[in-house]
Amino acid sequence: MSALPHPATPLLRPMREHDVPQVAAVERRAYEFPWSAGIFSDCLRAGYCSWALELRGAIVGYGIMAVALDEAHLLNLCVDPLYQRRGYARLMLAHLEQLAVRHRASLLFLEVRPSNAQALALYARSGFGKIAVRRGYYPARVGREDAWVYSKTFAQAHPVESPSRVS
User: Fold this and answer.
1) Is residue 62 flagged as an active site residue?
2) 111 is catalytic
3) From 31, 71, 83, 111, the catalytic residue
4) In the chain, what are the domains?
5) CA spacing 20 to 30 A to 150: which of 86, 96, 105, 129?
């Protein structure tokens, strides 16, 4: 029997209002221009798909996605800098993609900073492609930074059948 502790298994679960202070703290550690706690609370009130990644009782990441009609929009995906490069962002992204498909979304899109090399690599590995640029989208130390808009298309899980031809 080994004396080494068993590594904790991360738990993905719906985010709740009482998680907002921890989520906002992760956001502040990860980003120079973080979302406020109020924005996270607003996302919960709006009914967005909001998920927390918990490890040993602490939130170490989260993802927020809006779904409307046949489109999903990944609004925020973040892992605490202390827990990055362990596959947690990939795990959360895959989960959110599955949710988008379950909600019958055929398209998932997101914005990402061109300076965020780790996110760009994750999205490329996950099958996303760049479709547009939003000029001056993000605040930056000097001026504004563009956003690259990425998208991924999903095959319809339940395609609508076309009506039979009447001869």
Assistant:
1) no
2) yes
3) 111
4) 11-153 (3.40.630.30)
5) 86
